[in-house]
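Translate structure to sequence.
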């Protein structure tokens, strides 16, 4: 699974991403790879300067944009649309306007596996060992992480703003008379219902469950990505690893054991026998014959839903 070499608690400019942002990012970068550095970027995107920076950030975090490594000494100036970005949000993309809940689960997976660009998101869904917490608890947890790794130049206020942005990514805003209209626009990830906000307005709860809107193919995609990034290659994967290991689909998708088992039933069919769930001799495990191409599994979902 991804590990944290350097944390980031900024880049989003305190904005969770909006429904139209990723599609805009893909379209504009395809037209002009250096668009985010242009003087007229605000006009091209139709938003303010800070939001332009936020759109770039989320495009990278969600894996639909990437730096163009073929340009010498690029340093992030020139971007390109990733293979995932093109397949999902391109002109003939699977779901350019994020109308399918599967796409939101896919984007959640991308964000939760981006430790160096979305450290708080990564930590909560992979390493936080509690289901209930407050913003203050999470700030304290992230500051401990900063201290343990000896990361410099991380201000407490930056962490607080980052934690607040994380919370607003998964919970609907509370509207008051003083609320700015811009702040009432939900992040698409709110629809996943992964984070609950208590009636006290302070207690947050990670909701583990079946999550019926999570398709088997997206679960399989997460499992394949988890297998690809495992340090210790093995021909088997236990149910316990699937449920609780950082980076596993059970952990990242906040699935219950029953919800995980239900999706494992279709694994053999979805991967054409390359991955199979087996309970022989009382051992609940996935047998790994070969690690499939994750994009093939995604493609199968969108073909099925459009058929």
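Result:
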């Amino acid at each position: 699974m991804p590990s944290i070499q350097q944390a980031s608690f900024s880049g989003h400019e305190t904005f969770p991403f909006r429904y139209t942002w990723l599609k805009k990012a893909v379209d504009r970068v395809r037209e002009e790879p250096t668009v985010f550095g242009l003087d007229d970027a605000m006009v091209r995107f139709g938003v303010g300067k800070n939001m332009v920076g936020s759109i770039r950030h989320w495009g990278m975090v969600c894996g639909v944009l990437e730096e163009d490594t073929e340009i010498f000494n690029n340093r992030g100036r020139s971007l390109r649309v990733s293979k995932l970005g093109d397949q999902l949000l391109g002109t003939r993309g699977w779901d350019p306007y994020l109308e399918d809940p599967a796409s939101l689960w896919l984007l959640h997976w991308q964000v939760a596996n981006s430790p160096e660009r979305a450290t708080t998101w990564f930590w909560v869904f992979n390493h936080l060992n509690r289901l209930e917490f407050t913003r203050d608890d999470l700030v304290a947890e992230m500051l401990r992480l900063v201290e343990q790794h000896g990361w410099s130049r991380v201000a407490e206020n930056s962490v607080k703003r980052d934690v607040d942005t994380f919370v607003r990514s998964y919970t609907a805003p509370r509207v008051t008379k003083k609320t700015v209209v811009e702040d009432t626009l939900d992040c698409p990830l709110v629809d996943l219902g992964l984070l609950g906000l208590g009636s006290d307005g302070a207690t947050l709860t990670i909701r583990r469950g079946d999550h019926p809107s999570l398709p088997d193919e997206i679960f399989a995609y997460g499992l394949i990505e988890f297998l690809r990034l495992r340090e210790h290659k093995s021909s088997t994967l236990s149910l316990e690893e699937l449920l609780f290991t950082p980076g596993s689909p059970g952990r990242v998708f906040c699935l219950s054991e029953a919800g995980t088992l239900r999706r494992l039933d279709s694994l053999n069919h979805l991967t054409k026998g390359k991955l199979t769930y087996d309970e022989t001799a009382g051992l609940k495990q996935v047998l790994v014959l070969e690690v499939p191409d994750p994009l093939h599994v995604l493609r199968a979902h969108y073909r099925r839903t459009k058929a």
